[in-house]
Amino acid sequence: MRNLLIAYLLIVVAFSSYQCTSDVKETAEVPFLWENANIYFLLTDRFNNGDAENDLNFDRTSETKETRKFMGGDIKGIIQKLEDNYFTDLGITAIWLSPIAEQVHGFVDEGQGDTYAYHGYWAKDWTAMEPNFGTEEDFLRLVETAHAKGIRILLDIVINQTGPVTDKDPVWPDNWVRTEPRCTYQDYRSAVTCTLVENLPDLKTESDEEVDVPQVLKDKWEKEGRLEKELTELDEFFERTGYPRAPRYYMIKWITDYIRKYGIDGFRVDTVKHVEETVWGELIAEAKKVYEQWKKENPNKYIDDREFYILGELYGYNIQSKLYYHYSDTSINYFKYGYDNMINFSFKGDVYKPYKQLFTEYSSYLQDSLDGKWATNYLCSHDDSWSYDKERKDAFNAGTRLLLTPGTSQIYYGDETARILEVEGEEGDANLRSFMNWDELTANIERNGVTINEVLTHYQKLGQFRKAHPAVGAGAHTMISGEPYVFKREYRSENYHDAVVIGLDLPKGEKELGVANVFKNGTVVKDAYSGTTATVSEGKVNISTEYDIVLLEK
């Protein structure tokens, strides 16, 4: 009898514990997780013009096609949209900005038309701000404005190359850069120790030879009245770190100065495969160290205690590769050298998979195979000719899949407004880089049977739900029913628990969803998509809305 009583008590305790853990706990504050971040990527020159007075600099007046010149977007324009809560309404938790260093002054013929460095990837001087984008004061204000909105800033950085040689921009000395051979990608060496394309000098990041500052930079700094300042800062850096004056260490100093000056939250690193992995380890270690020092000196300016974050663009990396990138002659775990997250180039192909397969596979990779590291999903970008749905015929479905797939999500400017990625008369990457379609949004034009404002509203609802629930991107995925597709996401840490139930391709009007013990019977739940509430009964929710999607939260 005594043994039966003990067994009964154990069952009661176990059942009570299960009931407790299966219910969603109330918390005062939703934690930010990079794993669940909703990142907005924009080209500064293409987003919003906040100051027409900085539109022309360095006599960049040669005739080019419309999409190959500077078009006026600037840092002040981004600030305007921050202050208007454009990003907040989208549920954005981090903004990835294209590089802000001063660009080459001349233009080049890329074979598809003369082109200026509007995109930010052709640096002339890493120690100066590109005046077409704004001033140092503008950028500091942008970071502080974003932080006040709870939005982090990821700055795009380039270390593998200078800008191209033009009639206004001479090549750097040959102990700094190589101008051949071109990369052929046959093996590791032919992807790293080479120039990415013709006329794009490759920095000798592998070199340990001590070099002086290129004379072209010294002359520029002297003309601008800051030669002594820049040289003194370099002396202090090399004395503090003990690094030799090899090219990569100058670059590490100049790039980490963005952290010292502005308190940005992370880097999006360009062209990972074109630099030796050990160099990335050196840069990232210094960046994280500088960030911790900046936080000590600015205790009231940072958002939280997280480390400086590193998102990498390792071209061709797929989540299916897990921790490794495979060359023909070697495989490298770049995560080991400090990367927290890699852009996942396979998502734009995987997005065609059925929900069950897509969500289950991605949850498995992220929860079990990446050893605490993460991947960022995207549909479109500034240089991806295989971007998904260039004509924006599938904008609703694209948004659903991007924002609800496990992993970090990256919106490319205009995904949420169905900005067309095919420009009449253009070739190549310029197609992907038209100016943000604010005019179409204002006019609320219809595209493929859906108005642009309807697309934007869809992205806003999904983005805000994702921001409110770490479980969406960072949680484990479990299917509840296959047809219609209903699933739960659950995230649990030592001091936080979050779970949601989501239904897709549901009937419009009356619908029933199982909640799989995520919510207890009698719990009032809300569909965040429609705003409708319902009460859980017998492990199910019956709800009536005009939509085919339900986002259930407590």
Task: Walk me through the structure.
The protein has two domains: 1-30 and 475-554, Immunoglobulin-like (Sandwich), CATH 2.60.40; 38-162 and 246-449, Glycosidases (TIM Barrel, Alpha-Beta Barrel). It has an eight-stranded parallel β-barrel with strand order 1-2-7-10-11-14-15-16. With 554 residues, it is α/β, with parallel strands linked by helices. The chain is built from 16 helices and 26 strands.
**CA-atom Rg in angstroms:** 25 Å
Task: Tell me the number of strands.
Answer: 26
What fold name goes in the CATH topology slot of the largest domain? TIM Barrel
Our count of domains comes out at 2
Form type: globular
CATH architecture of the largest domain: Alpha-Beta Barrel
Report the portion of residues in β strands: 15-25%
Low-confidence segments, ≥5 residues, pLDDT <50? Answer: 1-26
Q: Largest sheet, described in full?
A: 8 strands, parallel, barrel
Per CATH, the class of the largest domain reads Alpha Beta
Whole-Å distance between the termini? 42 Å
The named CATH superfamily of the largest domain: Glycosidases
Strand order, main sheet: write it out.
Answer: 1-2-7-10-11-14-15-16
Instruction: Tell me, rounded to a whole number, the average pLDDT.
Output: 94
Structural class label: alpha/beta
